[in-house]
UniProtKB/TrEMBL annotation:
Organism, scientific name: Bacteroides faecium
Gene Ontology annotations of biological process type: ribosome biogenesis
PROSITE patterns: G_OBG (PS51710), GTP1_OBG (PS00905), OBG (PS51883)
Function: An essential GTPase which binds GTP, GDP and possibly (p)ppGpp with moderate affinity, with high nucleotide exchange rates and a fairly low GTP hydrolysis rate. Plays a role in control of the cell cycle, stress response, ribosome biogenesis and in those bacteria that undergo differentiation, in morphogenesis control.
Presence of keyword Membrane: no
UniProt-listed HAMAP family: GTPase_Obg (MF_01454)
Record has Nucleotide-binding as a keyword: yes
Cofactors, names only: Mg(2+)
Residues binding Mg(2+): S176, T196
Protein name: GTPase Obg
Summary of subunit composition and partner proteins: Monomer.
Residues covered by region (Disordered): 350-388
Pfam families assigned to the protein according to its UniProt record, in alphabetical order: GTP1_OBG, MMR_HSR1
Length: 388
């Protein structure tokens, strides 16, 4: 089987740059016998920066480049000249990328907008040159500050797709057929379960040039929240959706029971998902006559908008669009800030194993990282950096 290009989970090693050393240079010029110290400050180390890019929709470009390293700051020089700052390392990520510490599970940041920049690791500040340490009783200090050390961390980048409507249903419920019929998306469609093996996005056109984004994920089976089937891996892609469209086929033995099973899987995975607006679509309804629809309707869950549809014949599709648009624009359906919780360490290790990311990422430091501090005998405290 060919390897999928949809990559939504990667582990990479990040290292910011260390700060450059301050200079210990003493001014020596003809006709200036008491030149004194004129050592400049070291440059700042480069940052590791994440930038949202709407042109990416997976993390595939990071899968084969597991090391992100910024440049080191250069040392200061004579004439109070500052050292050059280290080059920042900018990592382009798709909007919806969440970052965690791979060792502790700590939540670090979330990139949700195009062009949004987040400093993941700060570069070390440059050390002060000896010109900063001249006093009335110490006219020629022959020491300077070393630069602050670099920071390093192995992180997990996890993509959660941004969409307005998320499709929720068992395998073969007609999710991909619906997406292909009302958008330009072309997901794989076949008459067997688990045809969809990765998420698909489609833009659904509405009246007056309006539109909304719909996300189709692989079918959920009972026990998906515990890792059965493909559910656990892809359930997170509907965490950000404003509205959930539950899809149950009309030929189901018990439509209400299927809906309750799906609801329970979402509750087990993340209870906050039940706070989202929900709509129920009974698919493949072209096989029903009005009498059967009337019999089924009283058994459907109360308080949830529902509609009988057929993606093949077009039955109920325009009504479904109207309901979705109305629900999306309700004041009660505005997305609140998502609260990201740290990952449990034991569960994190199993998650890394399941995703094939449990191997350590090794990196051997080059000679450029070694400190050349032979002439830097100054012992500084944190307050020495306050004016930097």
């Amino acid at each position: 089987m060919a390897e999928s290009n949809f990559v939504d989970y990667v582990k990479i090693y990040c290292r910011s740059g260390k700060g450059g050393r301050g200079s210990t240079h003493m001014r020596r010029e003809k006709y200036c016998p008491n030149g004194g110290p004129d050592g400049g400050d070291g440059g700042r180390g480069g940052h590791i920066i994440l930038r949202g890019n709407r042109n990416y929709w997976t993390l595939l470009h990071l899968k084969y480049d597991r090391h992100a390293m910024a440049g080191h700051g250069e040392s200061g020089s004579k004439g109070r000249s500052f050292g050059k700052d280290g080059a920042d390392k900018i990592i382009e990520v798709p909007c919806g990328t969440v970052v965690y510490n791979a060792e502790t599970g700590e939540y670090l940041c979330d990139v949700t907008e195009d062009g949004q920049e987040v400093i993941l690791l700060k570069g070390g500040r440059g050390g002060q040159g000896n010109s900063h340490f001249k006093t009335a009783t110490r006219q020629a200090p022959r020491f300077a500050q070393p630069g602050e050390p670099m920071q390093e961390m192995t992180v997990i980048m996890e993509l959660k797709l941004l969409a307005d409507v998320g499709l929720v249903g068992f395998p073969n419920a007609g999710k991909s057929t619906l997406l292909s019929s009302i958008s330009a998306a072309k997901p794989k469609i076949a008459d067997y379960p688990f045809t969809t093996l990765e998420p698909n996005l489609g833009i659904v056109s509405y009246h007056g040039g309006k539109s909304f984004v719909m996300a189709d994920i692989p079918g959920i089976i009972e026990g998906a929240s515990q890792g059965k089937g493909l559910g656990l891996r892809f359930l997170r892609h509907i965490e950000r959706n404003s509205l959930l469209l539950f899809m149950v086929p009309a030929d189901s033995d018990d439509i209400r029971k299927e809906y309750d099973i799906l609801l329970n899987e979402l509750r087990t995975f993340n209870p906050e998902m039940l706070d989202k607006q929900r709509v129920l679509a009974i698919t493949k309804s072209d096989m029903l006559d009005q009498e059967l629809m009337d019999e089924i309707e009283p058994t459907l869950p109360e308080g949830i908008p529902h509609v009988f549809i057929s993606s093949v014949s077009g039955l109920g599709i325009s009504v479904l669009k109207d309901i979705l648009w109305e629900e999306l624009n309700k004041e009660s359906n505005k997305i609140e800030a998502i609260v990201h919780r740290p990952k449990d360490v034991s569960r994190l290790q199993q998650e890394l194993k399941d995703m094939g990311e449990d191997e350590d990422i090794d990196y051997e430091y080059g000679e450029d990282v070694d400190d050349e501090d032979d002439d830097l005998d100054y012992e500084y405290e944190e307050e020495d950096w306050e004016d930097k």
